[in-house]
Amino acid sequence: MAEQGNGEKLTAKERLAIERVSMPEQDGIERSKNFNEVNLGLQEEIAIREAQRCLQCKKAKCMEGCPVGIDIPGFIQKITEKDYLSAAAIIRQDNNLPAVTGRVCPQETQCEIKCVRGKSGAPVAIGWLERFVADYEINQRAARPKTQAPKTGKKVACVGSGPAGVTCAGELAKMGNEVTVFEAFHKPGGVLVYGIPEFRMPNRVVENEMENLKSLGVTIETNVLVGRTVTIQQLMEEDGFDCVFIANGAGLPIFMRIPGENFKGVFSANEYLTRINLMGAYQFPKYDTPIIHGKKVCIIGGGNVAMDSVRTSKRLGAQESIIVYRRAREQMPARAEEVHHAEQEGIRFEMLTSPVEILGDEQGWVKGMKCIRMELGEPDPSGRRRPIPIEGSEFLIECDLVVVSVGTSSNPLVTATTPGLNVNKWGYIEVDDNLKTSIPGVFAGGDIVRGAATVILAMGDGKKAAQSINNYLTTEIQTGA
User: Fold this and answer.
1) Is residue 294 a contact partner of residue 328, using CB atoms and an 8 Å limit?
2) What domains sit in the chain, N to C, each tagged with a CATH number?
3) With 70 as the cut, is the pLDDT of residue 151 above it?
4) Phi-psi region for residue 267, left (φ > 0), alpha (ψ -120 to 50) or beta?
5) Which of 96, 172, 271, 322 is 20 to 30 A from 53 (CA-CA)?
6) 100 HSE (CA, 13 A, CB side)
7) DSSP state of 322
8) Strand ranges (E), 107-176
9) Can you tell me the mean pLDDT for 120-133?
10) What distance in Å separates the CA atoms of residue 76 and residue 115, rounded to the nearest whole number?
11) CA 267 → CA 199, 255, 399, 450, distances in Å?
12) Which candidate, 153, 156, 152, places its Cα nearest to that of 236?
């Protein structure tokens, strides 16, 4: 039974009668003018009430949906007991970034979709409770976690400080290995700092998690572009690393290859968000990096990155910010919450619409985008109905800034400078079931293996890679297997 606030036990019937809570958030119009966090977090009483909805299933289906295997009923039970630091400790057994995943993990399609409460109502708000616990720990913790395992004397390099890299690094450090993370940018965090806006993932949250990583004994070296500053081969043969985990993501922008993409005022979403999020362009001239503030902005795409881009443009003062997406709303890959927030903030949606040409003025600046209406045909290999152009339906959208957010591909810098490293036809690194590459001692995971995916899936790879690397260091090297 779950605890009541006064210590009494709740029956299953009483727990079933509790309705799912709502997340407090900034007003839509007000928040579209600032970069403060949208979701404000649960207050203690609300969090306890939501935790009491958990039925504490003996065979918890929710855990099956978690890529890193968090003991979800266990940490939720601790919330009902008001033992929040113990709840945080339970989460951290399997998740080194709870304040991150509590904000951006798509729980609705992973753990929450498995929750038995969802069969006849709303599932338990697992993600919101995770965030509550993580934020409480940040505010109340007296000391950061320390590694307790005896030192193994083994050295591991992690290439990239995104979700896969830092998860792998943290797990390996807990096992007693000496770990160094190499990051190309001047701040660690990878996609968490360059790809996710401040209003969805405050930098202070990522910075705190990086400090936790350091407290485990992990060294983070920034401004190191592996493949240019140093190669994988040099890390192993000259710098003495026993293993390398490649987790440099898939950050090479994809464009549509339509006329006009070279006009001034056309950005990839990768560049647009990196300049704003990592380099502080939204606070120019306080920070040195400028960014164009369009009056009428078009974002091409329908994923989470497109939502981040269009909502960012609105906050930069755009009079109108428009999503242009070639399928219908139900086919959008973005989280429902992000689409809902965008609608609340006054974002315009042009659905079943595909750009065919970007138009420019005599000075080479964007002035509009020629589009065509689409209709949905038979399903494509992804299972979504294929968009088909409607002949004669072309029309013009006036705009002065275009952001292309149709995906990313693998950056070839590491793979091109690592002889013997096998990649597939798309340039992603090939690995076996244990995330081993074709080079002994070199492992890989996250987006550089699976293509652009979610934070939590990358973390799952990092956790799996850490176990595989530790097995390699403790058994295969000694036995010569």
Assistant:
1) no
2) 2-140 (1.10.1060.10), 155-250+410-479 (3.50.50.60), 253-408 (3.50.50.60)
3) yes
4) beta
5) 96
6) 30
7) E
8) 155-159
9) 95
10) 13
11) 21, 9, 13, 25
12) 156
The residue assigned the tokens 């968490």 is 192
Bridging pattern class, strands 395-398 and 366-379: antiparallel
Give the residue-averaged pLDDT of 287-291. 91
Average pLDDT rounded to a whole number, residues 4-16: 72
Neighbours of 40 (CB within 10 A): 11
Angle, helix 84-92 to helix 126-140, in steps of 10 degrees: 110
321 phi, psi to nearest 5 deg: -120, 130
- Residue 258's contacts (CB-CB under 8 Å, 6 or more residues apart) are 355, 356, 357, 358
Using alpha carbons only, what angle is made at residue 259 by residues 254 and 264, rounded to the nearest 5 degrees? Answer: 75
Identify which of 250, 252, 189, 295 has the alpha carbon closest to the alpha carbon of residue 404: 252
Cis preceding-peptide flag for 285 (omega within 30 of 0)? yes
d(CA 42, CA 26): 13
324-353 b/e with 16+ CB inside 10 Å = b?
A: bbbbbeebbbbbebbbebbebbebebbbbb
Tokens of 192: 């968490």
Reduce the DSSP state of residue 411 to 3 states and report it: coil
Q: Which residues of 388-423 are buried (b: 16+ CB within 10 A; e: fewer)?
A: eeeeeeeeebebbbbbbbbbbbbbeebbebbeebeb
CA atoms within 13 A on the CB side of 135: 17
pLDDT digits 0-9 by tens, 188-214: 999 999 999 999 999 999 999 999 899
pLDDT average, residue stretch 365-374: 98
How many of the other CB atoms lie within 10 Å of CB of 480? 5
Picking from 439, 461, 441, the residue whose alpha carbon sits closest to that of residue 451 is 461
Helices (H), 141-190: 163-174
214 burial class (0-12, 13-18, 19+ CB within 10 angstroms)? middle
pLDDT for 11: 85
**How far apart are alpha carbons 238 and 404 in whole angstroms?**
41
Query: Is residue 284's pLDDT more than 60?
Result: yes
